[in-house]
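For practice. Supply one:
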Amino acid sequence: MKSSVFAVGCDMGSLTVKLALIFNDTILDYAIAKSGVQPVQTAEALLDQLLIQNHKTIKDIDICISTGYGRHNVSFADDNRSEISCHAAGAFFLQPNVRTVIDIGGQDCKVISLNDKGQMNNFVMNDRCSAGTGHCMEHLANILGISVEKMGQMRPILPFIPKISNKCSIFMELEVLQLLVNKHSIRKISAGIADAVARRIATLAGGISMQKAICLTGGVSNNIMVIKYLQKYLKTSFVSLPHDPQIIGAIGAAVMGIQL
């Protein structure tokens, strides 16, 4: 490893593209954008934007590591790593006391166990159905006629929330439509969706031995209601990370590049 390394981490998610710039152990900057129909071009535009903002050029980059759903397609990446390893590395880099990472992304959910050196002990993953993922929540928010961001900012309603299936995204959609027909409020339906997502993640987490401290990563981690219901089902609280949970995979990719 060089004494001084300027690294870029690029997380090509199914919903968003995230880039992080790190110099040695300092996070210089990061950016997030919707993947769009041409995610590689989105990543290239984000890189140009960040380099200009930080008075750098492509020649200043020592290494770039890509991760995420489209990691093999990144034109400017030197190598790639799995989302699991990058979310683990990013969370541990920001909070060395973290022992469990729950990543709720656009395409899948993962629960990752770490040792005291930040190395992965074990993980469980659910990628067979989109229920409980960012894709699912964005689709259901569209049915409700609101943005997924607005859904995420709503405060939880603990009593009297409608029960929604958490095992199949198609069933969830049908149930949400029926609740709308029955004139349930948008807030109550949103609470039911968040509760269903939290129950699904809690069930997944039951397949691994979770140790504290526990943190959340991924876009769904910004949803206040999902966090509250997940704390309820797991009977725990989560440690906060000092940066947007969506960017943790990109930070981890850059960190892994520095460590090469």
Remarks:
- Residues 1-95+242-260 form a domain with the Nucleotidyltransferase; domain 5 fold (CATH 3.30.420.40).
